Automatic annotation (TrEMBL):
InterPro entries: Aminotrans_V_dom (IPR000192), PyrdxlP-dep_Trfase (IPR015424), PyrdxlP-dep_Trfase_major (IPR015421), PyrdxlP-dep_Trfase_small (IPR015422). The keyword Isomerase does not apply. The keyword Coiled coil does not apply. This is Cysteine desulfurase. Residues 27-400 form the Aminotransferase class V domain.
Amino acid sequence: MNLPVNPSIFRKHFPAFAENDLKGWAFFENAGGAYMCQQVIDRYNHYFTAHKLQPYGQYPASKEAGAEMDDGHDSMARLLNVHVDWIHFGPSTTANTYTLAHAFGQVLNAGDAIIVTNQDHEANTGAVRRMAAEKGLEVREWQVNPATGSLEFSAFENLLDDKVKLITFPHASNIVGEINPVAEICAAAKKVGAKTIVDGVAYAPHSMPDLSALGADIYLFSTYKTFGPHQGLMAIDPELAKALPNQGHFFNDGILRKRLVPAGPDHAQIAASAGIAAYFDDIAKDLNIAAPNNGERNLFNALRDQETALLTPLIDYLKSSNKVRLVGTDDLDARVPTISMICEKPGLELARDLADHKIMAAGGHFYVYRLMEGMDVDPNHGVLRTSFVHYTEEAEIHQLISALDQVL
């Protein structure tokens, strides 16, 4: 295997790789949370040191604090290729989806229909399902193919008509890893006047989405999966954000970024999020690639190529093994490197076994309980999940394969 890029270009920006306690350990739990880059840590520390006060005030330190928070909004808008009015930071993606469900519950009526999937993380489906039950809405479940875990577009089309007002689905499942056709789904939704909520938590760490191209009304992900602080980002079409009922204080009704975030997020974390963009800018410079801006996506294409090269030997190994059932497609271009396996031994036990070989992985149902049931897998048995991003080394992939060979 020849990697397109030496991972040292990326790893030098992550202090975790210099930690003595982590040396020799291969990190394959990125789907649970990626390492934080130095650019984020520096901004986080600076804000807490210099600006741990109320922002947007009349004195210099407060004005500076507000400016750093604005930079967080601006930077994430640039990465996602949308106007800054799209960007809303909340405490977590789970909290954000709960607020959105409550807001939609105030505008939807009995007789309206919603489409949910059984491939979703519970955060992107549970609150909406509860709201639907309370409002007497019709719930249509887009179910996965039980053999593959895939969401098939033809099954979605069979559920869609002009009664449907809201559709929630994942860009990629945090277990299946297959990339769903977001632009196609959103285009079909628009034809019947339905709004879309896309869960991008499992996709964004691998390639920041170009939201202008996807056509989603709402796109959600967690910045701690994208090398940043622990918070949730909601990108919402500003016209929809204005139309949904205000969930914040009544006197903030005219402030767009406060209307759908009733529990304000940590100021320092918003400011630190600018470091995510700074990291991508820095590695783009190192790779002599244009930084992401105005739809320029070459950097993210390069990072996907890096991950695909790393993924190739692992998928080849799993395809050749009769001891595992790979969840999702083996088409490298159609998935992200979140690799789940159904094995004879429960996923959590296998994760413990792998730890003896200095592999950091995880086992369980990962809040995708409905998917486990839809694939006829006992959620308590669960899957073994290994996940990585572009900073993973080739040697770590082989370390994982060797460890799997011994514990399966």
